[in-house]
Every structure is written in structure tokens, then in C-alpha cells.
């Protein structure tokens, strides 16, 4: 018996909608809390279920059974609409992410993506930026000054960081020659090259902008707890709050998925062109994908427990004065690398090597500078202190 | 540990007259008829001055004697004495590494010149003194209550303010916790301080 | 001392500052005028009262329930976007009439009330209170008690600075230092608990000495802890001191000169970060601070970053002080010769200690009875908070959070 192709599409949609919140609630949040606990010399939640694995369920129950409060002077309709606006675009965006190559189920070949849209990247950028409406409207409709400030911060921040993010992805488009995410992975496979190497700069810009887009540390200004008392979601509780929460974490997952797909070869194992590492293909490709996404999520968590928060004007300065010029430069670099060398691959490989070496040098220089500055600071100390 | 009463008496410190102290002399020279008395106790100089010239005294101490740091402003309620209050100022000099205490007496309802224009630090201290004692400072830029709220009646650190509290109109559950029914309100043997 | 003062005065050019301030005031006045005109125009057109969107300025109540006001502090802000035009602190939410309570109870009964003022540094509060009464009675504290008092003081200073470090880190979004700082603070609280049974409200000093002698092994454990602490302080510094974002958030924020600090009556780490080397432990030594070898850390710029550095270095100095005191400890009396019923002469006295927040003083008026006639507290947090509007003006709301953290207030002490 063969099932109609539509069945598989529906199944995938249902799985996405059902699974992603579950993964967010049970895995990502728990991992975040346990990992942050580990980094901060404490345990994190370990009471509900073995090693706290059921913490997500407890949180879910708590959020669902909590009283849903709408402030009396809020715009009620918008106040209810905002969380939906925050979560739906995020879930929709997942539909174009290729989680792995097509797999064979019985006699049918089922692709591990809901839709291979030929304008995938554009679709992603467009649909994720709708999410900001949820935040702005939520902040405004709460009729709370802190929420309003949070919403405004968020609007400015997301608009500013959409630009470098888009520009960073433009340079990737030059490499893939397609907006389709599936094509992007296929191209990396064909070129035996992860685009992170020639697109090192693009990747950095993309990821920094991505962290800012998702309102995470060190760019978590719209919901800065210590300044704006959680900002736009101050007046939300219960399920509505859960929706905002889900929206934020799904956005994190999407940013990570896109980074993995366009920069880190999607479902490809590391070094797909090296013969000696061919055994890596034995691992199901979807697992590679998930592992890479997990690495990105780990980076998010790591950032959160390491960095203090930027100030609003500094954040804007970083976006407009650094990231956008850098992204434009990067487009030129990639374009010239492709233009000045025969074929598409050679120039990119050279660019990758150059950027890689430059990056290592820059890293070493920064470390050295930091060390010297520290030494200078300690030497300038009026009262040297014994250890 | 134990001491005989005689010994104990001997060990008791005593205040000495400090009218001859250079700071007091300087004050007297600069502002005649302001210094009422001066004493020294436990190495601390206390100068009592006329109430009306307190701002000038503060200015003189700051400029001429380098007492640039206003440590504190407060008051003491002597209840039956006339005039009723003592307003107490503490100043510190960085160059001398020493403190001086300046006091002036003020009757109930009388205004004391504010030194907030001389020392910025005195601003809140004077507000607190106004709030707690009801001593008003003339020329203060912003003399509002600070620790109690606007509309509070009475001045809590006056000796005649009842310890069990007063009816402020701010009680949320007056049936359960009546106003003026403070910690010792229901106790028939309660101590009334005033 | 004087040289330091002169240096502090020299770093500031009066004309420059006043001109900049004038410009700023003119700018804000102009903005306010334009905003008022716009608001009036808008409401004339719509026929409704001006809304949030018509006016340039917004009044924002920062607190009393706000996570980073460190208690129940309320600041009425006037903001233009996120820029602070005016900040008016409103205090008193925690006012409990401690000064009145002192008047109703005998001298020894006053000590526990002092615990509840600066509740993250109870030992220094106890110390200041006892010091005042001892001065009034002219009582000599035995040497062992002096040393133990200094140890308790410095441990308390460490724990208070650790609380400050953690919470002001959180204010700026750095969550991890908080946990590290509280891990060490917990150990200090354990030492307190072992010594006097309490962790926060210590009540660990008595007029003329101490209530208890040390428990066996306490000194060894404390020695082990303070030997370990510098490495832990390095750990916090590694997370913050050279962190680029941390520096961006703190350098040049809330700059105040040494002269201005004196004018505002600021004390403690705040004044030392502005280049004035003034510490009561050094300037007017009490107990055995005179013979101890430590330096008073100072910095020149008077900004939030320097206040951070000064506090961190003070922690290192406290470690040194505790070590020296532990070396000097010898068995002996812990209580001075205090009469059973304390009835001092009818006199007045002021005594102060260097609390972690600044100069904490008690002014006691006695009328010869067994109760203080008047007991006044000179709370460092209260006086330091006064300068907040001066520090905050023209900065952003995010900086206000940093500034509240940097002057290190405890509302229990502000409101008493």
C-alpha cells in the first residue's frame, strides 16, 4: 500500500507543530537550565523525574493552569493576538528547513523537509521578521511603560539587525547561486566545501545578528529583566507567556538551523571530501544536522552565562557602524573571489584559506592585546597586592 | 570584672570647657556673638551657637577652617526644655582629620536657616530632621517629608509621639489591625514613652 | 592625604564641567518646551488629553517593586525615550523607626536593632553601635576582642562586597558572577553561624567586647578560607574586569570628582574611586586597625568601573587584614570592664566605623538613665543615595541600573 504524498506532508506538519514545542519545552529549556547550572557552580533543576527530565512537563502544567491575566486597561484583542503573532511565524519558518536528505519509507521516498521552496531564504527572512510584530504589539497593548519601552527597543533592534543578517546571507547566495535551502546543502556537497570557510565573515555577522534577532544575551535588551522588568512580556502570564517563550526558543532553533544549513553543510558530515573520514557517512545525516544545531544552541546558552548585557545605544552602534559595513565588504570580497578565479570553487577555497589564517592571526593578536592591557593595568595599580 | 563604686566613679569621663579651642576662637573672631558655649567630651568638640547664624557658622567652618564634609544633621527633642529642640550638625575636616559638632537650640515651630546651600549633603539630612522632628529649615530647596509619606501627621521622633502609633488613615484592615494599635497597643501595662 | 585631595581637585576643571552642565540644561529645557508645545497642539487637534505618544517626556516609576533597585527604592524618572532627564529618589518604604526603638530600650538591648539596618553587613553595624557606647562609657575593649571584632568586620565587608559584586553583575546582565560570589558568601555566613548562631542578623558584639569566644577550629577554617579567596577573586575578575562589554557598560558612567564627592558627603568606596584616599580605618583608626598593614585602594576616574575595581581590591585587602588578625590572636579576655547596669554620664558622643558602604556613625545622647535619650544613625547608604540624581542625569535607563548598583545601597539602612 502506498500512501499519497499529501499524507506525508500533513504528517510532517503535524510532527513539526507537535514536536518542536515539545523539544523546546523538554530538551532545550532543560538543557539550558542544567548547563547554566553547571557553568554557574550549581545544580539546576533535578527534582522532577530522573535528573529533572520531567521539568518541562511540570513547567507546562504550571503555565497552563496559571491564571491568565489581562491588565484591565490593556487593548484586549491585541494583547491576545500578540503571542500568537510571535509563535506562528516561527513555527511556519521551520517548514523550509531541510533536516536531512530524503529517506526511504517502504517504497516511498520521503524528503525530510515540509517544502523545498525555491525562494527558501527569502521566505525565511520575510516570515521571521513578522515575529517582531508580536513583540511590539505585546509591548504596546499591555499599557505598561516598561513593556512599551521593551517593545520599542525590540522593534529598533530587530529592524537594525535584519539588515546585516540579510546582507550576510547575500554573500552566501553568491556561493550557492540559489535561494533554496536544499540546494544550498547540495551545492556544498558538490563543491566539497562548507560555506563557513569562504563565508567566515558572513557567518560571524549572521550569528551575531541572529543572537540579536532572538533577543538573547548579550543582546537581550527588550526583555532585560534588571532594567525593564522583562520588557514586552511583563504583563503576560499563563499560556500567553508560554507562547512568547515558545516563539523565542523556536526562533533560536531556526537561526541555528539556517546557520547549519547554509554555513555548516546541513546534514553533511564534517569533511565530506576526505576519503579517510568516509565512515562518518554511516551516521544518519539527520543526526549530523541535529548535532550541529545542538552545538549552536549550546553556544547560545554559553553566551547567556558569560556576557553582560549591551546598552541600547551600543547595540545600535554595533549593528549600524560595524556589522553592516562589514557585511557589505564581505559581499565584495566573495564577489571578487568568484569573479577573479576560474570556476566557482577555486576562488572560494582561496578565500576560505585567507580568511581562516587571518582569523587565527586576529584571534592571537586580540589575546595578546588583552594580555598586555591586563599587565599594564596591573602594573599601573597603585597598590600591588600579594596573591 | 567587678569594681568598687568609688573606682567606677573615678573612671567616668567628664566634659571639659573648650572655649579656648582654636576653632572656637576662630568662630568667635569671625562671627561675634554667635558662640554660646563650647565643650569637649571624649575628644569631641561641641560648639553651641545662635540659631540664626548657623548657616554663616557652617560657611565659616567650611571656608576658613576647612570643614568641607558635612557628616550629618539631626536633632534632639528635650520635651520640656525651652527652647525645645537642639539641632545638631557634624562636620569633618580632611586636612585636620577631625570632627566638630555644632548645635543650636530651636523652639517648636521656629525656623532654622538651612545649610543645604553650603553643603549639598545636608539636603536630605534636613529633610529627615523636618520629617522626624518637625523642625522647619528656612531656605531649604525642597523641604518635603522623606521617610514618612506626604500627608503623614505628626513627627515620629518627638518625645510626645505615641510609641504605639497614631491614626494615619493608611491601615488596610483596620478591623483586624487597628491603627494606633502598634506593638504595645493592646497591652494594658504598656510603656508610654512620652 | 592632602596631596590626594589636591590631585583629585586638579583632575577636574571647574569651568569645563559647569559649561557642559549649562549646555545640557539648556538642551533639556529646549526639548521640554518643544515637547509641551507639541503635546498642546496634538490635544487641541484631537480634542483629547495628551497621550503617551504626544509627549516627548514620559514619567516612569522605577520601583518600589523593581528587580534592580535592591529593595524598595522608588525613583521617579522623567525620561525622553530612554534618556533620563530627571531622577527623584523616593525613600522610606522600609521605615521602621529604629531610632525611636533605641530610645525605648536599654543600651545593651539596642544591638539587635542595628542588625536590621544594613542587613547585609550586620557586624559593622553592631560594631559602630558598641563603639559609640564604649566611647561614652570610656571602656577599654580587651585585645582579643578587638582582634575578633576586626576579623568579623572584615569577613562582613567581604560578604557585603560579594553581595554587591553579584547583584550589580546581574543588574548589567552578567548572571554567572552572582553565583560564584554567593558561593563564597555562603561560606562566610557559615563562619558567622558557627560563631554566633546567626547568619544575617548577627548580634555578634556587646558593649565592651564580645558575647562569645571563638569555637575550636574556627580560626583554622577561616584561615583556610581567606587563603583560598584571592584565587576566587581572580575568578570573578576574569569574568568581568577585562570583559569588553562590562567595560563598555561601566567606564565613564556616573563620573564624579573627588571634590564633588566631599560636597555630597559621599563616603566609602565611592569617594575612594574618585581619588580621595580616605578610609576611617586609616584616618581615624579604631580597635587595632592602627597596627595592621593594609593599603587603602584608590582610583582616579570616579566612574562605575573604578568603583568596581576599588571594591574588588578592598576585598583583597580584607583578606590581608583577616590573615594578620588571625596571626595575632592570643587567648585572653573578650569582655571589657562594663558595669552590669549601663548608666553613662549625661553627655553626647559620636563614633563611626568604615562600613562596607561608607562612614557609618552613631550619635548618642545620654541623660544619665539606662536608656539612650536619643540615638541617631548616620547611614552611609542614605547619604550616598542622595547623589544618585546627580550621577544619573543624562544617562540612559540602563545606566541608572548600573548606578544604583555602584553606590551600593541597602534600603534597610536608607530607611531605618
Keywords:
heterotrimer; A: 387 residues; mainly alpha; 12 helices; C: 416 residues; 2 domains; three-stranded antiparallel β-sheet
Radius of gyration of chain B: 20 Å
- The CATH topology of the largest domain in chain B turns out to be Beta Polymerase, domain 2
- Give the overall average pLDDT of chain A: 83
CA(first)-CA(last) distance of chain A: 76 Å
Query: Structural class of chain A, please?
Result: mainly alpha
Number of helices of chain A: 12
Q: Supply the number of helical segments of chain B.
A: 4
Helical fraction of chain A equals 55-70%
Number of strands of chain B: 8
List low-pLDDT spans of chain B.
none
Write the element-wise H/E pattern of chain A from the N-terminal end onward: HHHEEHHHHHHHHH
What does this structure look like?
- The complex is a heterotrimer of chains A (387), B (194) and C (416).
- In chain A, helix 2 packs across helix 9.
- Chain A is built from twelve helices and two strands; from the N terminus they run H-H-H-E-E-H-H-H-H-H-H-H-H-H.
- Chain A has 387 residues and is mainly α.
- Chain A has one domain.
- With 194 residues, chain B is an alpha/beta fold.
- Chain B folds into two domains: 126 residues, NADH:ubiquinone oxidoreductase Nqo5 subunit (Beta Polymerase, domain 2, 2-Layer Sandwich); 33 residues, no CATH class.
- Helix content of chain B is 20%, strand content 25%.
- In chain B, a hairpin with a 4-residue loop joins strand 5 and strand 6.
- The longest helix of chain B is centred in the middle third of the chain and has 12 residues.
- By secondary structure, chain C is mainly alpha-helical.
- Chain C has two domains: 52 residues; 328 residues, Orthogonal Bundle (Cytochrome-c3 Hydrogenase, chain B).
- Chain C contains 17 helices and six strands.
- The radius of gyration of chain C is 23 Å and the shape is globular.
